[in-house]
TrEMBL record:
CDD domains: PBP2_DntR_NahR_LinR_like
Transmembrane stretches, start-end: none
Annotated protein name in UniProt: LysR family transcriptional regulator
Domain HTH lysR-type, residue spans: 7-64
A GO MF label: DNA binding
């Protein structure tokens, strides 16, 4: 049985890079190593594991069966080392140059990101923020592997698989450009809603899909004349048309700051969306994670109170 003593653990980083990149050149670029250095490391890895590990094909360096089995173990081992090293680092927000990575929907990005950055700059002037919207089924693994640090949104399938903290409950409203002849009252009637032309946002966010489903269940038939993939284009579209859109209440309030909008309550009861902050249990006590969780919670809950 081989002993870990005397083994260069950097070889495992090289192994992982080749598995993921399927190219010695790209693996070297990722690790800032020359191709000869990567080739030399691969030779040592082959000796260490007594297996070819990778076969050169037109599609790149394809891992052998043994390499695929080893890859899972190596990936978890490197993640454990990373977690251990993070615990050894003291976090000082005033001097830290850490990058926090956040997965949030386009609606959340529009609504919360300016306030988050506004709070982050004076408190942690050298800290950087990256936003990486991910499909829901990829978030848990991304949190576990530190590809992202946090996820914010209505993500009910994650509540049993991650650490989380509730932020607020989101409701939906109907918006349109202010103009003469609009329906009176705070709530748009069902007949007016169905007679209007609508922009539908095909956002990947769970709550927005739930709203569309709820309309169908209530028998509400809307005349959708435009479907867009993101919320960001809505203000310009509504400013140029007489169309309507159903959006999160907080996002409607943000849009109304720059675009004169009429905001209506909806004539049917739609489900509320629980907006939640998620992180991985491995980082429950990590100083930086704890600090950033507190900042995100304060900012987003403050945002909720502002537009309630």
């Amino acid at each position: 049985m081989k002993s870990i003593e005397g083994i260069d653990l950097n070889l495992l980083r090289v192994f992982k890079a080749i598995v993921e990149e399927k190219s010695l050149t790209r693996a070297g670029e990722r690790l800032s190593l020359s191709q000869p250095a990567v080739s030399h490391s691969l030779g040592r890895l082959r000796t260490l594991f007594d297996d070819p590990l990778f076969i050169r094909t037109r599609a790149g360096m394809q891992p052998t069966t043994a390499a695929l089995e080893i890859a899972t173990i190596v990936s978890k081992a490197l993640e454990s080392v990373q977690v251990a090293l993070r615990y050894a680092q003291r976090f000082d927000p005033l001097t830290s140059t850490r990058t926090f990575r956040l997965s949030v929907s386009d609606a959340g990005e529009l609504a919360y990101l300016p306030a988050i950055w506004g709070a982050l700059q004076p408190a942690a002037p050298n800290v950087r923020l990256g936003v990486f919207p991910l499909p829901v089924d990829e978030i848990e693994e991304a949190l576990r592997s530190s590809n992202i640090d946090f996820a914010v949104g209505n993500l009910p399938t994650l509540t049993s698989r991650t650490s989380q903290s509730p932020l607020f409950d989101e409701t939906y409203v109907c918006i349109t450009r202010k103009r003469k002849g609009l329906p009176a009252g705070a709530t748009i009637s069902l007949s007016a809603l169905q007679a209007a032309r609508h922009v539908q946002v095909s956002s990947a966010e769970h709550s927005h899909h739930a709203i569309e489903t709820a309309f169908v269940q209530h028998g509400v038939k809307r005349n959708v004349v435009l479907e867009v993939p993101h919320f960001v284009s809505l203000p310009d579209v509504l400013a140029a048309t007489d169309w309507y859109a159903t959006v999160p209440h907080h996002l409607a309030a943000v849009f109304a700051q720059d675009c004169p909008l009429r905001i209506y309550e909806l004539p049917v009861d739609l489900p509320h969306a629980a907006v939640t902050l998620h992180w991985h249990e491995n980082f429950e006590s990590d100083e930086a994670n704890v600090w950033m969780r507190a900042l995100l919670t304060d900012v987003i809950q403050g945002f909720d109170k502002r537009w309630a």
